[in-house]
Amino acid sequence: MDAPLTRNIKSDGSTVTLAEYLAGGGYEGLKKTLAEFTPLEVQQRVKDSGLRGRGGAGFPTGLKWSFVPMGEDAPKTKYLVVNGDEMEPGTFKDRLLLEGDPHQLIEGVAIASYAIQANVAYIFLRGEYRLAAARLRRAIAEAEAHKLLGENILGSGFSLDLRLHTSAGRYICGEETALLNSLEGKRATPRAKPPFPQVSGLFGKPTIVNNVETLCNLPHILRNGVEWYQSLSRSGEPGTKIYGVSGRVERPGAWELPMGTTAREIIEEHAGGMRQGYRLKGYLPGGASTDFLLPEHLDIPMDYGSIAKAGSRLGTGTMILLDDKTCPVQMVLNLERFFAQESCGWCTPCRDGLPWTVSLLEDLIAGRGRPEDLETLARLCGLLGPGNTFCALAPGAMEPLQSALKYFRADFERYLQPQNINGGAHA
Ligand code: SF4
């Protein structure tokens, strides 16, 4: 099975040097790009490949690029920004790529920057990713020394200044416009759209924000072609995906697999199945801000369309499992506490609604819940849902709760029976 993104990742946790990367065909995609294609041809290839953003939203990458003004009249300064602010609970796939193969990301950044004619790129990195930061700094220096970055890359006339920015750390910085505000030194609140960053982004200039895994696909697409890329998949959506599993399995981790691999294969074969004594009760397929699915959904292909049809989102493709010995209400409370703490406070439904959600769940678990509280929680899911808040944080925060109320209602109702309350846990 072809796993281009992780083919260089070493099992001992060490990183790939420039010499090793070059020996494996590294930077061939960039060389080919600069020698054979115009920026618009690169955009078209990426469009044709069908690559969708791997940060969670799944927007088509080539289409996103095509909104950037191009040609003689386009603004002279444009930016490419890498979203490396991986802060969602349960999500750790980008860390694997950042630490294990930083040159692959750098090559992807150079290709994307060429495609939109940006001469400055930033990697916006989660502050806690110190090992990734150190390895990226070294890799950037290596690439600059070998004319793979900087002035007149490989004699092509294209120049790129790549800068690493380590974030002070806030979940909302993963939202692209909040990320841009943060990069400008402002408070990290999302911006109203339009204008979209492709037209007016960093410092008011055209800007593309792409996720780490998305960019790592580019060297391979440009080097090996669109048909090869599409052949990697098992479903109608092309390429591979780094899927992850956390929870009570034998081997939690992340694996690069064909797009469309089923959750059953990921959990049972790659993660080694549930640990002895535990049964799978449900799973969040794409990280903490997605809806629960049930064991009956395990054979659905893990791709954007199929997971959406089942009522959830592929998100980052990193599953969080719920087992039969973990209380779904307490698991959801844990997540809601995280989201309430990370709300940027800009809009009322999210700023006030998330702490209210937390206090209702805390009261329920402490035995102070009233039957009508479950209706209030369900109502909050709508009030904080899509279209009612400024950005997607609050709607995402409601996804695990609304699906838990649907699938695990009995677990919520059990807390309404005083005899079942035992120090905050089910009797
Ligand atoms: S939904 Fe929450 S995080 Fe997003 S802008 Fe509103 S307050 Fe901020």
TrEMBL record:
Catalyzed reaction equations: a quinone + NADH + 5 H(+)(in) = a quinol + NAD(+) + 4 H(+)(out)
Cofactor: FMN; [4Fe-4S] cluster
Superkingdom as given in the UniProt entry: Bacteria
Uppermost EC category: translocase
Domain NADH-ubiquinone oxidoreductase 51kDa subunit iron-sulphur binding: 329-374
Keywords in alphabetical order: 4Fe-4S, Flavoprotein, FMN, Iron, Iron-sulfur, Metal-binding, NAD, Oxidoreductase, Quinone, Translocase
GO molecular function: NADH dehydrogenase (quinone) (non-electrogenic) activity
Protein family: Belongs to the complex I 51 kDa subunit family.
NCBIfam families xrefs: nuoF_fam, PRK13596.1
Protein name: NADH-quinone oxidoreductase subunit F
Biological source species: Methylococcus capsulatus
